[in-house]
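Quick one:
INPUT:
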């Protein structure tokens, strides 16, 4: 857990994390030895205008799919998705054009709990345990943006 926090100290990936993210993005995007929930998000960079790819984990709740920012609202991909008005691509063996719609934090607590159940790599970035009561997730919900995949 400490290694994961070190790789994202200050809410930004260090050189090792960036390298591992590139490898994971290629693996997840190809669908190679990756569970179906592990995907590559591709979104246009808000400054460069070039496609930016990163690995993420999709969580489901009430038959809908969601992406969660384990690093909070200052994560680059969150800013890029907002700047792109939610237009993005998900890859996992196939390419799926999607629109990501930000969800009001008031209703994201059960989504966050489900996310921690399927994304073990994200657990180190949350101040509560995945088995915490829903009220604890409600308390931290404003700190973790959630996007519904449409």
């Amino acid at each position: 857990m400490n290694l994961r926090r070190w790789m994202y100290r200050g809410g930004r990936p260090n050189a090792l994390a960036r390298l591992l993210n590139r490898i994971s993005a290629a693996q997840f995007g190809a669908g190679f030895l990756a569970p179906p929930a592990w995907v590559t998000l591709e979104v246009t960079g808000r400054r460069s205008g070039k496609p930016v790819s990163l690995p993420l984990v999709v969580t489901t709740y009430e038959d809908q799919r969601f992406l969660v920012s384990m690093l909070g609202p200052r994560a680059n991909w969150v800013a890029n998705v907002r700047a792109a008005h939610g237009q993005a691509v998900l890859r996992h063996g196939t390419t799926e054009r999607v629109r990501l719609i930000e969800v009001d934090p008031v209703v994201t607590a059960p989504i966050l709990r489900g996310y921690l159940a399927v994304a073990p790599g994200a657990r180190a970035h949350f101040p509560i345990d995945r088995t915490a009561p829903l009220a604890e997730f409600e308390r931290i919900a404003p700190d973790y943006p959630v996007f519904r995949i449409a």
